[in-house]
Amino acid sequence: MRFRLTPRETSFYDMFAASADNIVTGSKLLMELLGADVSARAEIAERMRAAEHAGDDATHAIFHQLNSSFITPFDREDIYSLASSLDDIMDFMEEAVDLVVLYNIEELPKGVEQQIEVLARAAELTAEAMPNLRTMDNLTEYWIEVNRLENQADQIHRKLLAHLFNGKYDAIEVLKLKQVVDVLEEAADAFEHVANTVETIAVKES
Questions:
Q1: Backbone angles phi, psi at 62, to 5 degrees
Q2: What pLDDT, on a 0 to 100 scale, did the predictor assign at position 111?
Q3: Which of 23, 91, 175, 205 is most solvent-facing, going by the fewest CB within 10 Å?
Q4: How many CB atoms lie within 10 A of CB 14?
Q5: Is the CB of residue 79 less than 8 Å from the CB of residue 10?
Q6: What is the pLDDT of residues 49-59, one digit of tens each?
Q7: Whether residue 123 has pLDDT greater than 70
């Protein structure tokens, strides 16, 4: 690691870890949605909305700290990018749950559970990786695995789209379900953006 002559603001590490832990909470709510009765989904959506608001608060705290810190642990643009991408993940997960409730979708198509399982695994890996930003150790396997998961998510997404357009669903139902699976795919993309940002930071700090 590059030797530094100046002290660094370390509270960012704790804030990134808290943001990632909140994403794990969001992924668990997605998993809960899968097995929930239609009548229970509104309550799950409310809890997801609260988690998304907590994520917004965490992101704003990072931005505030960034604006008030003279010295940062790594480049300011990377801090901003990492915080924004973590926030995007929560936004997409919350949007997916909200759409399921707003559209009154009774049954999600087969394959959505695989999408959500990929997101849950990516959330766990991201939460495990954030504390390692302090030392930049043991991060290579993280971004490699998240990129692999994103490729897996792409394949699942394509199969889901093929399923939706196979003539089983009416046109309106296709539009509703496609929006949900597209947003879940965007969440997978956002996990990859986080991993790519971490890789960029690690390379710069090596």
A1: -65, -45
A2: 93
A3: 175
A4: 13
A5: no
A6: 999 999 999 99
A7: yes
Residue percentage of the chain with pLDDT more than 70: 96
Beta-carbon neighbour count of residue 100 at 10 Å? 25
Number of other residues whose CB lies within 10 A of the CB of residue 170: 8
**Model-level pTM greater than 0.90?**
yes
pLDDT at 35: 87
Which stretches within 37-170 are classed as H helix?
Answer: 41-68, 76-102, 112-129, 140-164
Burial pattern 103-135, b for ≥16 Cβ within 10 A else e, equals eebeebbebbebbbbbbbbbbebbbebbebbee
> pLDDT at residue 6 above 90?
no
Cβ atoms < 10 Å from Cβ of 76: 11
- Long-range CB pairs of 98-101 (<8 Å, 24+ gap) are 98/45, 98/48, 98/49, 99/176, 99/179, 99/180, 99/183, 100/33, 100/41, 100/45, 100/180, 101/41, 101/42, 101/45
Measured CA to CA, the distance from residue 116 to residue 192 in angstroms comes to 15
Chain centroid to Cα 46, Å, comes to: 18
Q: Collect all residues with Cβ–Cβ distance below 8 Å to 206 and sequence separation of at least 6.
A: 1, 2, 136
DSSP 140-184: HHHHHHHHHHHHHHHHHHHHHHHHHTSSSS-HHHHHHHHHHHHHH
Instruction: Quote the Cα angle for 192-10-70, to 5°.
Output: 100
150-195 tens-digit pLDDT:
999 999 999 999 999 998 899 999 999 999 999 999 999 999 999 9
